Amino acid sequence: MVYKVGIIGFGKIAQDQHLPAIRANPNFELTAVASQRGLKPNEAKHTFTDYREMLRDLRDLDAVAICTPPQVRHTIAREALEAGKHVLLEKPPAATLSELEDLRRIGHDMRKVVFTTWHAQYNKGVDIARDTLAGRTVKRLVVTWKEDVRHWHPGQQWIWQAGGFGVFDPGINALSIVTKIMPQPVFIKQSDLQFPANRDAPIAAELQFSTGVEGADLRAVFDWRQTGPQTWDIEIDCEGGPLMKLSLGGRRLEVDGEIVADESDDEYPQIYRRFEELLASGQSEVDEAPFRLVGDAFMIGRRVQVEPFQD
């Protein structure tokens, strides 16, 4: 079966990742794009500036991929589900946990698929790390996630507004890996959030985790001010071994110094293959674990004001 899909919100992530993944999958047809700027890829048969017109006019549309800023995602996803469309949610899936739970409920009531996509989880190294850690006790976890916001989000002001997540927009990718691979549930023990004096979202964060294992050193550092080479690393040390390192956002895995996975970026093609499976089965997949950790980090976070940030 070929599923007709529309993209709502045609910014950088939609253009760089969703569009090529849909093009490469013969089981999806890009039928429409809703873009406030009127952007249109060549293969999209229909273009709308208002997503509501898309939902109203294209009755045969099977699904939508929502790639808007998170602050407006709940309203759009709710209306799409109520219009009878399946929904794929770019990360983070909503602005709040309550909104995500509401989308789960509506999807169930409407018998439509709701799919939360955590792209960093779709790396071979992440699966191998999860399987290797199963049944082990992690005594050390160090997450270092540092990148250049000016490169990845040029001129995007929504990320600095309340509900835009700030440095947790990339940091949630690290948390999605942590929640997938760790053999015990992970909790936020301490959170220090650095807010630029002129912004409503953090530019850096230092987190301490707990799993109930006494004496474990579990922490993360997120920073959006790194220039030059970017850092997306997770180091893990278990009682009795092994010593593991995930790098390149999960694409590369070393176990005791030996490279066991080192692959090219296949995250979004994998996401659409998984979406195809969910559509065929009629089952939703709503993973709120990474999102919950972000909420906890904000809930118990200590606010630290730092120098203003200018794009």
Question: What's the arrangement of secondary structure elements?
Answer:
Blueprint: E1 3-8, H1 12-24, E2 28-34, E3 46-48, H2 51-57, E4 63-66, H3 73-82, E5 86-89, H4 97-110, E6 114-116, H5 124-133, E7 138-146, H6 149-152, H7 168-181, E8 187-196, E9 204-210, E10 217-223, E11 231-238, E12 243-247, E13 252-255, E14 258-262, H8 267-281, H9 289-299, E15 302-306
Parallel strand pairs: 1-2, 1-4, 2-3, 4-5, 5-6, 7-10, 8-15
Antiparallel strand pairs: 7-11, 8-9, 9-10, 11-12, 12-13, 13-14
InterPro entries: Gfo/Idh/MocA-like_OxRdtase_N, Gfo/Idh/MocA_oxidrdct_glycsds, NAD(P)-bd_dom_sf
Pfam family, one: GFO_IDH_MocA
Domain Gfo/Idh/MocA-like oxidoreductase N-terminal: 4-114
What portion of residues is helical?
A: 25-40%
Task: Please compute the radius of gyration using only Cα atoms.
Answer: 20 Å
Q: How many individual domains?
A: 2
Number of strands: 15
What is the fold named in CATH at topology level of the largest domain?
Dihydrodipicolinate Reductase, domain 2
**Any idea of the CATH class of the largest domain?**
Alpha Beta
Tally of separate helices: 9
Structural features, described:
The structure is a single chain. With 311 residues, the chain is of the alpha/beta class. The chain folds into two domains: 3-116, 3-Layer(aba) Sandwich (Rossmann fold); 120-264 and 296-306, Dihydrodipicolinate Reductase, domain 2 (2-Layer Sandwich), CATH 3.30.360. It contains nine helices and 15 strands. A nine-stranded mixed beta sheet has the order 14-13-12-11-7-10-9-8-15. Strands 3-2-1-4-5-6 form a six-stranded parallel beta sheet, sandwiched between helices. Helix 4 (97-110) links the parallel strand 5 (86-89) and strand 6 (114-116). Helix 3 runs parallel beside helix 4 (97-110) and helix 7 (168-181) packs across helix 9. The longest helix is centred in the last third of the chain and has 15 residues, at 267-281. It is globular, with a radius of gyration of 20 Å.
